[in-house]
Structures are given as C-alpha cells and as structure tokens.
Structure to design on (211 residues):
C-alpha cells in the first residue's frame, strides 16, 4: 500500500512538472486562458471639496486569453466604495461637516504581458482603456446636498506577480494606477462647482484559475 501511495504521488508530480514545462515551451505563462478574483485596497487621488477619498475596498473579476506567446488580451469589471468625513469651509467663512461617499464601477479592456521569471513564478505587466461609472454623494451638515453620477473614460497601467500552485491554480499580488477624465460636480444650494477626477491607486491580492 505504501509503495502504491508513493507511486501515485510520483505520477502526479511528474504530470504536474510536464504540464508546467509545456506551459513554458508554448508561452502559456498563465495558461491559454485564465480568470481571477481580486480583493484590493483603493485610494482615490483627487480631493473632492478638499476631502480626501481613501481607504476604500475594491472587488474585481478579470479574465484573459492568450493572443501570442506570453501576450494576453482581456478585461476586468469591479466595484469600489470609499467614504470620508471632514470639517471644511465651502465659502471661506462657515465651517461645515462634509460627508463624501463614492461608488465606482470600472469596465476595463487590457493587454498584458506575462512571463515566467522563476520556477512557477509569473511576472505580468500591461495597460488598457476603461469606461467607468461613478456615483458621488455629498452630505453637508447632515443633509443631502448633492448626488452626481456619470460615466468617464480612463486609462490604466498595472503589474502583478503570481505563483502557480498547480497546472490550474495560481495566486498573487497586484498593483494598478488608473487615470480618468474629469467629472463636473455642482453642490446644490451653493455656488460651488468643481471638476474632479476619479484617479485611483489599487493594491491587493488575487486568486485565479488557468484553462
């Protein structure tokens, strides 16, 4: 029985090694296709009414298919929420509490280059275009003063490092910076108008499956 268990273990190990070697030879660093679920910390870089939107959470799903050896095309969709409270002056005189909340849904089309840099360790980097929906809610002094929502275009650059645990499973870390066009915001009940962007930085982890 012991010999049988050892034989099965060696067979599985040999099969996995053969599969990994085949991936390297064919440029399938992350399979012919792959999909991953991401959990990220997100920080919006612009200030809205001098209120920094930061410390949000981002959940996303991405999928890629190989175009050429090591070159993948794919997309990502996600959802983020960030909030902040702060005492500010909108007119230079009166101090008020501003409660700012943003919901953010990016739709991305990306190109990604991924290559094995060490046994089962894959480094990837790329960029792409995005079309994102955002909903900006602002409360002034405890009352709802403004609700703005819009779609904005953007571009992004990113990098990630993944480890292949099996011929199908991988996990790793990722970072991304995204630039978006401006959104016009008018704080109802005041003369305050501003153009704000949803430029953001994301840092997190992912777990994925290769096909």
């Amino acid at each position: 029985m012991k010999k049988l268990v050892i034989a099965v273990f060696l067979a599985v190990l040999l099969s996995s090694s053969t599969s990994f070697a085949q991936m390297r030879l064919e440029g399938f660093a992350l399979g012919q296709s792959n999909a991953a679920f991401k959990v990220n910390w997100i920080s919006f870089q612009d200030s809205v009414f001098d209120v920094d939107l930061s410390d949000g959470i981002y959940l996303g799903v991405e999928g890629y298919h190989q175009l050429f050896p090591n070159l993948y095309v794919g997309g990502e969709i996600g959802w983020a929420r960030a909030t902040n409270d702060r005492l500010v002056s909108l007119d230079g005189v009166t101090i008020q509490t501003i409660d700012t909340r943003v919901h953010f849904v990016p739709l991305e089309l990306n190109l990604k280059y991924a290559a094995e840099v060490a046994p089962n360790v894959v480094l990837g980097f790329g960029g792409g275009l995005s079309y994102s929906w955002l909903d900006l809610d602002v409360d002034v002094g405890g009352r709802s003063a403004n609700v703005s929502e819009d779609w904005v275009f953007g571009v992004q650059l990113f990098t990630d490092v993944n480890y292949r645990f099996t011929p199908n499973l991988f996990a790793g870390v990722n970072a991304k910076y995204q630039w978006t066009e401006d959104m016009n915001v008018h704080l109802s009940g005041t003369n305050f108008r501003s153009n704000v962007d949803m430029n953001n930085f994301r840092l997190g982890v992912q777990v994925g499956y290769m096909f």
